[in-house]
Structure formats: structure tokens, C-alpha cells
């Protein structure tokens, strides 16, 4: 880790942390919430590595006041949370469940009272189960249902949420949920999952229009990006890397920014109707960038169902997820976005950046996580370098405030700045929390550094 002082960030740079509803709230049957695809998936044996579910997780639904105090202690400007669609519309359609909306209404008011900007993601993968039963994101009608949910939610919260994010990581949702089947809803359609891309994008575009009828706040989408490193120097290796690049980094961003779809294998144009590309390219105010790691790619092995082979990258430290720690990839990615999309690229906020380590309290109950401090230090310096390169980055949100339920990995991966003891629900700020608090404080205009 660099021993040089953290460079200054521009005045107004937004410091934040991120979470998502299903990973922290628990209370999955409280107050009329309906089932989501993750409730169903977690009940299916063998899907979650430790056999756990999202039933309780961090019990944030009941402990939100304590969690808002953790935000205040950290000194962040903003908190990115997600709204559970099955709390708002238990079946994914029809009238709102007012009690479900009340929860977010109170949370938003608590955040504003604490001086923290509410940043709300409408869809972080928790599709109401009845919509999945009707075809999920393979089904065009899900896009219209999503826009209706967005409209009803913004009617209540649109005056107070400071930044709206429609979808979280539609690529990861499509590829792991519908392509490989390792996430909910657990469908393994490989490239036949393309309609899931199109319908999420269409839902996004329709939701942008719906949101704007109730809010003047900026609207964004949060994509996952991973710079591609080609391994090997054959034409087949380069072609494989280009295919993966199109899929992971361009499939969603090209149409969002008005370029239409890139060439990807298995793309079925029959789901694209007249006018859809215009709906999808509705102007957004901010591009949310979620970055974890670069991806090594080489030519597919004979007989592989995929046109590429994803390989672990050597030469980097690794997180508990075995993901490489590569801050240079974040600078590279931000430069690539600017070079590729030029004037069509809106201002960027890093909406997720973080790492999992096996953090545990010591005998005194303290949780030291020097690897996370090094991770965040490196990635913040990468953002600073990208600003110097001329990329318009407006904020940085750490994934995550709390250790939480890491999807198919259950409770086995800890991403938090705050340790959670799931047996007692005790929250213990880790040393990275104190470190980040000091970095944020030192970045304030007039701070004594
Ligand atoms: C993101 N991958 O998920 C999500 O937005 C969060 O909910 C999640 O907790 C966080 O990152 C950490 O995983 C991802 O396989 C899941 O490349 C998988 C991948 C990337 C992001």
C-alpha cells in the first residue's frame, strides 16, 4: 500500500457506501412482502454454499436506525440501498402494499435527517416470484411491470431520493441468473438468455420515463464492468477476448448510450421491436460503474459451450473470493469508457467497489482488516488518476456498509466495513471503517490536513 498521503478529491466529490435489500433486510414475510426469486432459489437444496437464506441476514428491516447511525459515524454524503420490489408489489403487479413503501419512506427521512443523500436502486435482483412464474425477464411484459413499479415507488419517494438507479448489474443478473444458473432464478440457457438483456434494458428505458414524471433528481443505471486481458497471442485468443468484451462490457452500455447492440453470439433479434432501441437510449444523467476485477480470457477449449475460456489472472493479490486485486483495472476501465463513448458518456459514479476477506474479531473484539484498507486505498488512487486523465467521476461508493448475505455464497463472504455477528446481530466497525472515516474527513474543504 502507498505510504504517500491520499491525494485530494474535487470539492463536492460524493462519498458513499452501498447495500442491497435482499442482502441485509431479512424480514422476508413481514408486512405483506411477497416472495422473490431469491427466496425460492435459496430453498432449493445445494444452491447456496452454506445452505442459508435471506430470511434474517442483517435484520436491517428492524435495525435501520442503528445502521443509519453507522453511516453518520462514517461521515458519508450518500447511502445507496435498494428497494425490494416484492415489498412494494407482493405479486409484481397491481396496487402498492403501503406498509412496504412505509419502510423506505421512513428510511429516506432518517437519512435526510442525518444529512445523508438517499440513493435508491429499484432492482437489485429480487424479482417477485409470480413474475418469474410467468417467464421472468425472458418475458417482455416484465419490462412493463418494472416501469409500473418504478412509477408507483417514485410517486411516493420521488421528492426525496437524490439519485435513482434503475437496475443493478443487468449483465451479472442475466449471465449468472439466466445464462449459467448459479444465481436465481437458476436457469442455464447460455446464449439463449439474450431476451433477458433486452427486456431488462427495455424495462430500464420505460422506468427512466416513469421516474421523470415524479422526480427532478438524476437517474442512472449501475453496470458491472471488467477490463478484459487477453491471454495467449493466437487469433483465436483475440477473438475470444473480443467476444467476452462485447458481452460483459458492451452489451448493455452500447444500447444505453445510443449505439445499438454489439455483435454477440446467439443474439436473437426477434425480441427487438420497432422503437425499443429509442426507449432504451433515453438520456440518463449518471452512469453507475461497479468494478471488482479484470477478467483473463483465452480461446475456448474444444467442446466448450462458450466461445471463450475465462482464466484466473496471475500476479495479483487475491481476495477471499479469489478475485484479483487490480486497481489499475479501474483506471483502465474509466479511460476505456471515456474513449469508447466520448460525448455520449454521462458523468460517472463508482456505485460499487470493495472486497471480501475472512474478517473475524480478535480477543478484544476488534476487527482488523488491513487488506481491505489496502484495497480501498489502491482503488481510490486509481479514481484520482482517472480524474487526472480527464474522466468525469463524481463519487465513490464502497461495497458494502455491512457484512451481508452474499447470494450463492451465503454468509461465507464478508464485504463489510462493519463486521456483523449473525448470531447476535452485533455490528463492529472494522479498522477499514475508521480508515475511510478519516479519509473522508480529510477530504472536506477546510479540513486541517
Ligand atoms: C455485485 N462476478 O455482484 C452485486 O451488485 C452485489 O450485490 C454483490 O454483493 C457484490 O457485487 C459482490 O459480489 C457481483 O461473478 C456478483 O463477476 C458476481 C460477479 C460480480 C458482481
Please characterize this protein's 3D structure.
With 449 residues, this protein is an alpha/beta fold. It has one domain: Glycosidases (TIM Barrel, Alpha-Beta Barrel), CATH 3.20.20. The protein is 38% helix and 15% strand. It has 15 helices and 13 strands. It has an 8-stranded parallel β-barrel, surrounded by 4 helices. A 3-stranded mixed β-sheet has the order 6-8-9, covered by helices on one side. The protein has a two-stranded antiparallel ribbon with strand order 12-13. A hairpin with a 4-residue loop joins strand 12 (418-421) and strand 13. Helix 8 (170-180) runs antiparallel to helix 9, helix 13 runs parallel beside helix 14 and helix 14 packs parallel to helix 15. The protein is globular, with a radius of gyration of 21 Å. The model has no long low-confidence stretch (mean pLDDT 97). 4-nitrophenyl beta-D-glucopyranoside binds next to loops.
Cα-based radius of gyration, to the nearest Å = 21 Å
Spatial shape: globular
CATH class: Alpha Beta
**CATH-defined topology:** TIM Barrel
The biggest sheet, with number of strands, parallel, antiparallel or mixed sense and barrel status, is: 8 strands, parallel, barrel
Bound molecules: 4-nitrophenyl beta-D-glucopyranoside
Poorly predicted sequence stretches spanning 5 or more consecutive residues: none
Structural class: alpha/beta
CATH architecture: Alpha-Beta Barrel
Number of domains: 1
Q: Tell me which oligomeric state these chains represent.
A: single chain
Record field, number of beta strands: 13
Count the helices. How many? Answer: 15
Strand content: 5-15%
Q: Looking across the biggest beta sheet, what order are the strands in?
A: 1-2-3-4-5-7-10-11
User: What is the terminal-to-terminal distance?
Assistant: 20 Å
Q: Write the H/E string, N to C.
A: EHHHEHHEHHEHHEEHHHEEEHEHEEEH
Amino acid at each position: 500500500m502507498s505510504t504517500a498521503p491520499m491525494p485530494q478529491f474535487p470539492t463536492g466529490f460524493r462519498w458513499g457506501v452501498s447495500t442491497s435489500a435482499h442482502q441485509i433486510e431479512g424480514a422476508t414475510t413481514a408486512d405483506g412482502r411477497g416472495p422473490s426469486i431469491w427466496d425460492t432459489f435459496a430453498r432449493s437444496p445445494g444452491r447456496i454454499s452454506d445452505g442459508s437464506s435471506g430470511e434474517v441476514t442483517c435484520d436491517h428491516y428492524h435495525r435501520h436506525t442503528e445502521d443509519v447511525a453507522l453511516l453518520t459515524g462514517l461521515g458519508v454524503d450518500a447511502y445507496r440501498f435498494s428497494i425490494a420490489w416484492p415489498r412494494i408489489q407482493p405479486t409484481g403487479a397491481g396496487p402498492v402494499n403501503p406498509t412496504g413503501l412505509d419502510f423506505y419512506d421512513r428510511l429516506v427521512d432518517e437519512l435526510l435527517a442525518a444529512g445523508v443523500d438517499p440513493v435508491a436502486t429499484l432492482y437489485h435482483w429480487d424479482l417477485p416470484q409470480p413474475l418469474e412464474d410467468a417467464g421472468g425477464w425472458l418475458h417482455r411484459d416484465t419490462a412493463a411491470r418494472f416501469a409500473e413499479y418504478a412509477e408507483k415507488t417514485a410517486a411516493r419517494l420521488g421528492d426525496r431520493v437524490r439519485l435513482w438507479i434503475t437496475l443493478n448489474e443487468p449483465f451479472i443478473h442475466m449471465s449468472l441468473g439466466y445464462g449459467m444458473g448459479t444465481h436465481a432464478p437458476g436457469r442455464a440457457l447460455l446464449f439463449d438468455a439474450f431476451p433477458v438483456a433486452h427486456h431488462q434494458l427495455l424495462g430500464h428505458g420505460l422506468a427512466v420515463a416513469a421516474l421523470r414524471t415524479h422526480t427532478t433528481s438524476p437517474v442512472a443505471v449501475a453496470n458491472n464492468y471488467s477490463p478484459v486481458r487477453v491471454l495467449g497471442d493466437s487469433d483465436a485468443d483475440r477473438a475470444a477476448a473480443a467476444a467476452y468484451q462485447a458481452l460483459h462490457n458492451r452489451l448493455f452500455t452500447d444500447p444505453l448510450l445510443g449505439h445499438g447492440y454489439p455483435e454477440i453470439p446467439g443474439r436473437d433479434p426477434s425480441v427487438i421491436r420497432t422503437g425499443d432501441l429509442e426507449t432504451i437510449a433515453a438520456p440518463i444523467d449518471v452512469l453507475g460503474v461497479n468494478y471488482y476485477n479484470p477478467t483473463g480470457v483465452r480461446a475456448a477449449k474444444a467442446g466448450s459451450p462458450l466461445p471463450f475460456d475465462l482464466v484466473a489472472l496471475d500476479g495479483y493479490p487475491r481476495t477471499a473470493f479469489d478475485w484479483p486485486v487490480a486497481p489499475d483495472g479501474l483506471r483502465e476501465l474509466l479511460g476505456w469508457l471515456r474513449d469508447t463513448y466520448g460525448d455520449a458518456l454521462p458523468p460517472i459514479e463508482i456505485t460499487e467497489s470493495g472486497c471480501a476477506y475472512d474478517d473475524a474479531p480478535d480477543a478484544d473484539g476488534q476487527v482488523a482488516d488491513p487488506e481491505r484498507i489496502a484495497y480501498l486505498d489502491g482503488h481510490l488512487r486509481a479514481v484520482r488518476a482517472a480524474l487526472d486523465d480527464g474522466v468525469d467521476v463524481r463519487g465513490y461508493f464502497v461495497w458494502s456498509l455491512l457484512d451481508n448475505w452474499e447470494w450463492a455464497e451465503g454468509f461465507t463472504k464478508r464485504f463489510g466495513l462493519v463486521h456483523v455477528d449473525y448470531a447476535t446481530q452485533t455490528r463492529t466497525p472494522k479498522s477499514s471503517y475508521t480508515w475511510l472515516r478519516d479519509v473522508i474527513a480529510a477530504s472536506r474543504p477546510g479540513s486541517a490536513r
